[in-house]
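notes to self, project folder thing:

trying the whole complex as one job this time. last attempt i did each chain seperately and stitching them together was a nightmare. two parts in total, labels are on each line so i dont mix them up again. if this works i'll redo the older ones the same way
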Amino acid sequence: MKRKHRYVRFFLLILVSLPLTGCWSSKEIEDLGLIVGTSLDLETGDVSSEEQQDARYANRDLLTITNQLITSETTVSGTKEGSLPEKAYKNVSETSDAVLPTLRNMLLKIDKRSFAEHSKVIIIGEELASTINLKQSLDFFLRELEIRPSGLLLIAQNRASQALETNEPTKIPAFQLVEMMEGHERTTKILPPMTIAKLEGKLYSNSSFLLQNVTAEDGEVKFAGAAVIDGKTKKLRGFLNEGDLEGNAWITGDGKGGLVKGFDEQSGSPIVYEIISMKSKIVPHVDGDQISFTVKIQSEGRIAEHWVLLDKASDNRFLKKAEKVFEKEIERLVKNTLEKTQHEFQTDVSGFGTKLRIHYPKVWQKIKKDWDQTFSEVPITCEVDVTIKDYGTSGD
Amino acid sequence: MNSSSKDKITTSQAVVIIINYILATGILTLPRASVEKVKTPDVWISVFLGGIVAMIAGVIIVKLSQQFPDKTFYQYNQEIIGKWLGWLISACVIVYFFTISAFEVRIMAEVTSLFLLEGTPTWAIILPFLWVGLYLISGGINSIARLFEIIFPITFVIFLLVAFLSLGIFEIDNLRPVLGLGVMPMLKGIKTATLAFLGPEIMLLLVAFMYPSDKSKAVKVVLVGITIPLLFYVITVVMVIGALSIEGVMTRTWPTIELMRSFEIPGLIFERFESFLLVIWIMQIFATFTITYYAAVLGLAQLFKKSIHPFLYGLLPIIYIIAMTPKNVNDLFKFGDKIGHAALILFGVIPVALLLISKLKGDKT
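result (full assembly):
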């Protein structure tokens, strides 16, 4: 009896050792290449391999994808003796006619196993965005499990791969871009971040939208306005500059902070208004077939800087005068933006359609198909109300 | 029926069993399934009404069971409509129970192999799950109820935590307008929403297990048991649509997991919040799997008036085979719809008929 038990125990011991083997499909971090950023470009130049030439002959568009990798070798810090690696990142590029095959072709070039769970940013080149439907070029990124929908999407003027380069060897450009995006909190010249998760809804609702635009030259990366994506074709339509973005932020009211620069009428000296809060209400009016909008903007803020020598900020008359100046300036920004979106691009990127959908759902059902067209002819008026709450530590 | 005192459950245990039964696949798929039907942001109203419909069905089921307080559905239905017809209905209910149990196992395997255990073969995910379930069920309804009591609070806390973490990407405009296109689109979603509330049917059996003094509270049990999942579902639908918008939800296979993957909270040590959700979700699937498995086994034992054990082991391979039948995810979802439709007839129509017949019979005698 006792002997029998011993066998049972022995058997159990072996059985127990099975689940104790630890992580079955683990991958050592030293062998991983963490993908932190990806750029997509349209390839128009010469091609070398047979596969690429075949695609050329068949008149298919060729993509060049650049992955920014962080590997155990690139992250060696100063503590280690010997020479530092040249850069803190490693960019790998490959060209083919669809996204995943291109990525897989990179296997032929790198020893690390690519791992995209920590991918932070996807940058699309101007040319690619204006020739290929975003739904198609981004399909892989929306489908693939390893790529998290919290990643950012940017458009690059010129080549997107340049945005993943930098002159400072210790910096990782992909992370830099993500951190720069946080500047949205302090200026209205940067759009609120558009993640892949939000993009999905935009792409399928056929509405036009904006994507943050980035320019890169000689290793210097800069945010410069926004790209207008047409809701119907899902291709790049054109660019808004930083000023237009400011106007757009006032229309949508989704800016978190920023400045308005006005000029005193008498002396022409600059007065700067810092936004504490901005609210906007887009009110649609429908009268028969006539659609119109009123944009009601309310803002509170403080005088952050003023060069006017004759006036004192502690004087209410000056504050009233300054409020008028800023109201005018904001109205000008809004008008400028609308001029561009309504007449130049004929796309609604500021959410007028959404408000119409919410307040007049039945009207919206009828006109949503050609909304961008309708939008370009809709009269929009603008009411701005600025309140200056304080003027910092100087009453002068 | 084994009426030994240890096979009794308290009122709160009965509530927890219903909650854990209802919460299952729906958490991950309800937002998509209902948005596909409704196509306006009014989905949450549909879900709400779906819950009310389930409550009505639940109350009818309880009223029926209260007519025969010490017997399970399998035993008393023969008294109402005769031996053969009763036998047939019992058989259908048993098939329903083990089919749904197989369905849950397969869904679990699909999600796990997609999100957690990439590369692990499906059978290797399913088999341990089945075995652990078998072990639990062999302890009877009491062990099941006690485990469910442990699972529920964990689910509750973690679910609310992850749901509210996603507030950062919530946009109220995605949920507006309310009833903008009238009530019609919203009504279209009620059936889909009701199907997410499969579960009150367990009261056909549970009333027999409740303490005699508690049996009168069975209506309350079913109402509370549905209200809590109702809140869970409404929160899920509101959060998912608020973050991803109607159009964004429609194209996602597992929208709720997508939501958890869609945000990062800087400063917090963890990322990958979907793993939290998956942990509680798998526990819920396990709960649904075991209770339906148990209901089927119990039915077989009572139908053939034999011990429960041979059926316990005999059903396991059948569940495995059914679970492996759907060829791909689309088939699997269609399979789930079919089970739902079967449930509408089995637990929407038949209990009403049985209740009427038994009332009429009762009046005569």
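what i see at first glance: The first helix of chain B runs from residue 11 to 22.
need to look closer tmrw
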